[in-house]
Design brief:
This protein has a six-stranded parallel β-sheet, with no helix packed on it. The protein is mostly beta strands and 214 residues long. It has two helices and 16 strands. It has two domains: 91 residues, no CATH class; 122 residues, no CATH class.
Length: 214
């Protein structure tokens, strides 16, 4: 419906969807809708409640939305658990602006995070974790088959946790980016890429693949 509508960015929460049935590519499989996280959050909030004149909330909807970001966890869980929706949007966790840590360790599903903090902690699922300024960010990926992407500074990137080796950890992909990084894959068959000349790459356990220069 809004596939490749790159300039579209509106709140659709007031739209009557009570009789909606097939929405398989409403936002496009690659998220080419141009919808911001704020508009998508507001849209989900509107669709998760009954508006005047609506008799029911539609059930079993496949919203696709790969590549669209959301942070409205309440609306997401209501629609997916109570009404059987499938929403494939990326989840972006927010954190207080005065906090140095973004902690997703208690999340019940994979997260897609980009955080400009001193520490970014992943969940037990297949996360995508990207660092940014300030420099010297520490990222423990946690369990799951994580993708961890560094920025242009010296980061410390762990496939598992910072202080413990996790035998249940799956193979991670860790890319250092610029800067003098320290990368530790932990358990699992990891892919470790330094991307700069002065990185330290430690495979840990499993059959790991090293690429110092990217």
């Amino acid at each position: 419906m809004f596939f490749e509508a790159s300039s579209f960015d509106q709140d659709l929460g007031a739209r009557d969807i009570s009789s909606m049935e097939d929405t398989t590519d409403i936002f496009g499989n690659r998220g080419d809708s141009g919808m911001s996280m704020e508009s998508f959050d507001a849209t989900l909030a509107g669709w998760a409640r009954l508006a005047p004149g609506e008799a029911r909330i539609a059930t079993g909807i496949d919203l696709a939305g790969v590549g669209v970001e959301l942070s409205n966890d309440d609306a997401f869980h209501m629609l997916t658990t109570q009404y059987g929706w499938t929403i494939r949007a990326d989840y972006r966790l927010s954190a207080p602006s005065d906090s140095d840590v973004v902690d997703a360790s208690n999340e019940t599903r994979a997260v897609n995070l980009m955080a400009f903090r001193q520490m970014l902690i992943g969940s037990d699922f297949d996360d995508i974790l990207r660092t940014g300024r300030p420099p010297e960010t520490t990222v423990p990926g946690g369990l799951g088959q994580d993708t961890i992407i560094g920025d242009y500074f010296g980061e410390t990137l762990y496939g598992g946790l910072r202080d413990d080796d996790l035998e249940d950890d799956l193979g991670d992909r860790i890319y250092g980016g610029g800067g003098n990084d320290y990368i530790d894959g932990g358990y699992g068959n990891d892919e470790l890429r330094g991307d700069a000349l002065n990185d330290t790459l430690i495979g840990g356990f499993g059959g790991d693949v090293f690429d110092l220069f990217g």
